[in-house]
Design brief:
The structure is a single chain. The chain is an alpha+beta fold and 473 residues long. The chain folds into 2 domains: 193 residues, D-Maltodextrin-Binding Protein, domain 2 (3-Layer(aba) Sandwich), CATH 3.40.190; 218 residues, 3-Layer(aba) Sandwich (D-Maltodextrin-Binding Protein, domain 2). 37% of the residues lie in helices and 13% in strands. The protein is built from 20 helices and 13 strands. The strands form 3 sheets. It has a 6-stranded mixed sheet. It is globular and about 80 Å long.
Length: 473
Amino acid sequence: MNNGKKIGAGLLSAALALSVFGCGNNKNNETNPVSSAASSGAEATKAPETSSSKSEKVKITYSMWGSAEEGKTVQATADKFNASQDKIEVEVVAIPWESYMTKLNTQATGGQLPDTGMLKEDGVIQWSTDGMLNDVSAMYEGSDSKPLDSLAYKYQGKTVAYAAANEILLLYYNKDMFDKAGVPYPPAALDKAWTWDDFVAAAKKLTLDKNGKHPDEDGFNAEGIVQYGASVENLPWQLETWALSNGGGYYSADGAEVRVGEDASIEAIQKVADLYLKDHVAPLSVGQTDDGIQRTIIAGTVAMATNGQWNVGTSLNVAKEEGLNYGIAVLPYMKDKVTLGTGGANVVFSQTKHPAEAMEWLKWYNSEENNWGLISSGIWMPTLEKWYTDETLTRKWVENPNFPPYDEYKSAVVDYARSSAARPASWFYTNHTTEFNTLLGSILGDVWTGKTTAKDAISKNLDALKAAHSGNQ
């Protein structure tokens, strides 16, 4: 099947959104500013100053990662903002993803950062620590368009960025495979969520070897599997879902302490590995690439797989048009029902001379009516609570051909995102997640292949993980 991205009418940039969510979280690009020069004399995150009034428009720059063509697409949107008022003119600067953070670091060193722009999720708190971001706590004062509190990136109690969209992790599944196997669909309602044991049992019924046998049947050939029942995305940041669900986690609630070495966290990670190693219901995944839905549901090799909501718009739209009959459900759970929430950050850099104007642009750009193509395509989820609680607005959002059936999506996404199960990804509140996740991913490599256990791998490297979390790696 074609794994390309559907570019719908009014879609600002599908490739832009792709990189915003799950954006390079498995890459090793540098996220920390070159602080010795960039933040020389800078205190922690700065509060904005009011720009002086001028008769001509104040010109500000907005950086994004993407090609020059993608930059033109976003500039066309900025031009609408420029034409809507007579005070601010926004120039969009597109930088290739591969060199984006390196370029920003160089600009920071030279005091030449843009006024505002995109920043990798796992770099927000670090840049705040180095005094490179403005405090945007007051950005929505007097406005009824403030995003959900769960979308605020916070440093020392101050909001330093808001996510541009509200994203959660889901369970996707192939309805035709379930129908053929006579297995009930996974539930879209949180109160009916499958337990982990339910999930594994269903996965066994959906896993077939070349002779049509299941893993729990005599004669099953684990080396000749032609259809897998399940795949759980094991990118390090998504893997935390299961540690939390099992009563553990990577960090304490305030982000100060490392908890990945606790038995509950280790047990959860091992259960994910055992889907491949012992249960024989999942393909081998080494947690290095964020293309899980393409490799599983869209490829037609796996009956159900976990990943982010953004896949509805970035890849599944095209597959749906080509005949894929897929559904969505809430995640199974171990002890507690958990899904992780995330969203790429738009920030105001502290080097700007025009923080008020930069915030005015971001407020406009982040509003649903101005990025509707990204929302209606299924890539972004709205950031305002009213889209989740006002049925008229919810239907405007969800009742379109790009989405699964309304009732299914309403329950598995809209309600799920506002439920007690939704927890913020750790980069919203703690530092050095880049270093921690990179090291954890490396440590777990031999766990996925069965060369070692999660307990041995994490226990032997726990001090290194703690050092990574403290920035002393």
